[in-house]
Write a structure and sequence with these properties.
Layout lengths: L2 E3 L3 H8 L11 E4 L5 E2 L6 E2 L4 E7 L12 E6 L21 E7 L11 E4 L3 H9 L6 E6 L5 E6 L7
Antiparallel strand pairs: 1-10, 2-5, 3-4, 5-6, 7-8, 7-9, 9-10
Length: 160
């Protein structure tokens, strides 16, 4: 079984309280659009017309060559952390495909694990990468905009 996780609550609360993002800027406050924008903490869509934050996010412990940074959305008001039990979060079914990459425990890309995969097979494609002993976690990104969407881990693993 796979454990999907969004942005850690401690980080989400810091941004929601006006803390600086990965680029040293205060998150922008915007209104979610008609389709809703995916919150990277609760892994649900911010309802249309609701306030959301837009910020630069780097889901890695330290600056290093593989620590990608990109824009993400976050509920402006505190929301609960995603708690799905092994299910692919619904928010990860809204795009036809996603970019996935396996990373080692020291947060380096494991070469040969990156691919753009259809949303219909996202769960099995992530699970296959987690079956590789070199892979500690898999990051899921937008295939079109490279925005970080979520992280997938083996059950009970902690890499944030």
């Amino acid at each position: 079984m796979i454990q999907f996780t969004g942005m850690p609550t401690k980080e989400a609360r810091a941004y929601q309280a006006g803390g600086e993002d990965a680029c040293g800027q205060v998150p922008e406050c915007r209104l979610s659009d008609e389709a809703g924008n995916p919150c990277r903490h609760c892994l649900r869509h911010v309802p249309a017309g609701e306030e959301m934050l837009v910020l630069a996010y780097r889901p890695f412990g330290a600056l290093q060559p593989y620590a990608e940074t990109g824009p993400v959305f976050l509920c402006a008001k505190p929301c609960g952390a995603y708690s799905g039990a092994g299910d692919v979060p619904e928010v990860l079914s809204t795009s036809p495909d996603y970019l996935i990459k396996g990373y080692s425990a020291d947060e380096r890309i494991v070469y040969g694990t990156g691919a753009v995969v259809p949303s219909a097979t996202l769960g099995s494609d992530v699970e296959a990468r987690l079956g590789d002993d070199r892979v500690a976690f898999v990051d899921i990104r937008s295939a079109r905009n490279n925005c970080w969407q979520a992280r997938a881990l083996r059950p009970k693993a902690q890499f944030f």
